[in-house]
């Protein structure tokens, strides 16, 4: 009886999601128009002037503020010389897979001089997400926050005044053109030139050259409570964030509520967002906020990173008019750059806050190894591996983007674009997290996907491997949020670890930071038909091939069936 009740609850949850789409679309939906113009803008950072690609002349781009249930009409006009796409990161896109945004997965890019209008709804989500370019590395400067107001909120989250909310976007800055940085890395088959600075809302802060006068200030009034909407928009770095002398209370992650978690420092992987409450309860004055890199690879020569934290200032209102003496400000205490134990304790302390049921029965059970690997490259001459280039893989498969969109190929039954035999487990077993010399080369390039029936439960255990060294991998799934039911260090052992899975109150997210030298387990229900990309949100790793896609088949009836494409889809 208990098993039946859980299955029935899962079915009701799927049905409720579809009904909510119909309900909002016919009764309560507010239509909101969002217009993006992508163009060049000149900016100055680190004593250098530079032209960047930005949205509506702003870097970071404009925040999009909506309410749960809103119907969005989104117009993008491309005025630059590059193809572009925009992905609404974390937005579920229920029955609107066509406008999800990843290039050659759900659409062809918007070509120079063209526009694209798309429509979708915000369904059963509330909190902070972000939008960004989803082609090459354009998202370095083409990104911005999404703020989703709830129709109803938990009682433990106080009502926040409209002026008591701050958006904080963590990112990176290169003096060089980011497109050139990417191309140089691909040409040599190795790593890339690291950014010259980390940033908070596009500015490096007072510890960097030519930056003190541009340091961002966030105003607070003593005794008041504020919501910080925190986004890690960095391309390739997980980041710590803290505010000197202030406690952070995390109440949301990836636009899903969490049980309140008090901490001094949060860690966000690229693609993750946090909703954080702070109370201005310190003596009047100025307080540094800072972000620094979490890099679990102890050998900095293997994975270099900017070692100066980005800073901004939390300013109490009585101090707003005064000049800041930066030399007298104290940085918040941040963990060591490679403190994997701190990060593990933080991520494993997160608990979800929701009414939905957690899938108990598993229909698809996958083990995915995340690895570095090599491919032949006659023009790559850099030591210590000449004539080879670094790639990444999932189960020894290195993903190759097709020339037309996967969704178009699937919907129109076009043969030869993709294969449906993505492996369910690695091709061979070994001591995944052990340090040993072995042949890690792979010739398994291709566009392989996994077909899934509608309404089923998928469990994936991501197993990190040592291969060329330890690193975390922030895996992002489009179109489906998932429960993070377990994680740990070492090799995953089903008989040992599965009994301790959290099936009561796990966090519900769209991006999981798979631990360095460890594993993480997720579950989700296939209640959204279409083609859904899954990839590492380190852009270098995704570029190298740590990606795949799921094709969720149609269910029964119109409300479980992917509609035809919009008439104005961009051509290839």
From TrEMBL:
Keywords noted in UniProt: Apoplast, Copper, Lignin degradation, Metal-binding, Oxidoreductase, Repeat, Secreted, Signal
Family matches, as Pfam families: Cu-oxidase, Cu-oxidase_2, Cu-oxidase_3
Cofactor comment: Binds 4 Cu cations per monomer.
Record's subcellular location: Secreted, Extracellular space, Apoplast
All residue ranges annotated as the Plastocyanin-like domain in the record: 39-152, 165-317, 422-555
Cofactor section: Cu cation
Catalytic reactions of this protein: 4 hydroquinone + O2 = 4 benzosemiquinone + 2 H2O
Signal peptide: 1-29
Record InterPro entries: Cu-oxidase-like_N, Cu-oxidase_2nd, Cu-oxidase_C, Cu-oxidase_fam, Cu_oxidase_Cu_BS, Cupredoxin, CuRO_1_LCC, CuRO_2_LCC
Gene Ontology BP, a term: lignin catabolic process
Gene Ontology MF, one: copper ion binding
EC code: 1.10.3.2
GO cellular component: apoplast
Entry function: Lignin degradation and detoxification of lignin-derived products.
Family as reported in the entry's similarity comment: Belongs to the multicopper oxidase family.
Name of the protein in its database record: Laccase
Lineage: Eukaryota, Viridiplantae, Streptophyta, Embryophyta, Tracheophyta
């Amino acid at each position: 009886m208990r098993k039946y009740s859980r299955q029935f609850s899962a079915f009701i949850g799927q049905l409720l999601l579809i009904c909510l789409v119909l309900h909002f679309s016919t009764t309560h939906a507010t239509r909101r128009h969002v217009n993006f113009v992508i163009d060049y803008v000149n900016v100055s950072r680190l004593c250098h002037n530079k032209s960047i690609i930005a949205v509506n002349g702003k870097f970071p781009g404009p925040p999009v503020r909506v309410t749960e249930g809103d119907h969005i009409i989104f117009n993008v006009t491309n005025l630059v010389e590059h193809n572009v796409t925009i992905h609404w990161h974390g937005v579920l896109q229920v029955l609107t897979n066509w406008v999800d945004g990843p290039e050659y997965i759900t659409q062809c890019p918007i070509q120079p001089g063209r526009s694209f209008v798309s429509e979708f709804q915000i369904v059963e989500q509330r909190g902070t997400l972000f939008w960004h370019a989803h082609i090459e590395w354009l998202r370095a400067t083409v990104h911005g926050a999404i703020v989703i107001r709830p129709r109803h909120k938990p009682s433990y989250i106080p009502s926040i005044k409209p002026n008591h909310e701050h958006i904080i976007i963590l990112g990176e800055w290169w003096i060089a053109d980011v497109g050139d940085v990417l191309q140089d890395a691909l040409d040599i088959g190795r790593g890339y030139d690291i950014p010259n600075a980390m940033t908070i809302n596009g500015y490096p802060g007072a510890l960097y050259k030519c930056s003190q006068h541009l340091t961002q200030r966030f105003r607070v009034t003593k005794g008041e409570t504020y919501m910080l909407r925190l986004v890690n928009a960095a391309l390739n770095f997980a980041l710590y964030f803290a505010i000197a002398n202030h406690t952070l209370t995390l109440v949301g992650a990836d636009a899903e509520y969490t049980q309140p978690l008090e901490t001094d420092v949060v860690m966000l992987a690229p693609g993750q967002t946090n909703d954080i409450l702070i109370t201005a309860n310190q003596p009047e004055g100025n307080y540094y906020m800072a972000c620094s890199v979490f890099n679990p690879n102890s050998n900095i020569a293997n994975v270099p990173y900017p070692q100066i934290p980005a800073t901004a200032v939390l300013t109490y209102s009585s101090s707003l008019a005064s000049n800041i003496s930066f030399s007298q400000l104290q940085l918040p205490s941040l963990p060591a750059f490679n403190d994997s134990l701190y990060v593990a304790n933080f991520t494993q302390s997160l608990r979800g806050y929701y009414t939905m049921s957690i899938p108990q029965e598993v229909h698809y059970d996958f083990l995915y190894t995340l690895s570095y690997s090599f491919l032949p490259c006659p023009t790559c001459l850099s030591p210590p591996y000449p004539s080879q280039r670094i790639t990444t893989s999932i189960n020894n498969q290195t993903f190759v983007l097709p020339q037309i969109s996967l969704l178009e190929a699937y919907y129109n039954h076009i043969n030869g674009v993709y294969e449906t035999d993505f492996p369910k487990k690695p091709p061979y077993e070994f001591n995944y997290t052990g340090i040993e010399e072995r042949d890690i080369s792979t010739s398994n390039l291709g566009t392989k996907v996994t077909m899934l029936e509608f309404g089923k439960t998928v469990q994936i255990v991501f197993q990190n491997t040592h291969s060329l060294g330890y690193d975390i991998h922030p895996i992002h799934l489009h179109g489906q949020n998932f429960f993070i039911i377990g994680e740990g260090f070492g090799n995953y052992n089903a008989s040992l670890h599965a009994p301790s899975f959290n099936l009561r109150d796990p966090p519900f997210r769209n991006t999981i930071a798979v631990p360095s030298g460890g594993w993480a387990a997720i579950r989700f229900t296939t209640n959204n038909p279409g083609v859904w990309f899954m990839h590492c949100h380190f852009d270098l790793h995704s570029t190298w091939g740590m990606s795949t896609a799921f094709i969720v088949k149609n269910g029964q009836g119109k409300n479980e069936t992917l509609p035809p494409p919009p008439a104005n889809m961009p051509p290839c």
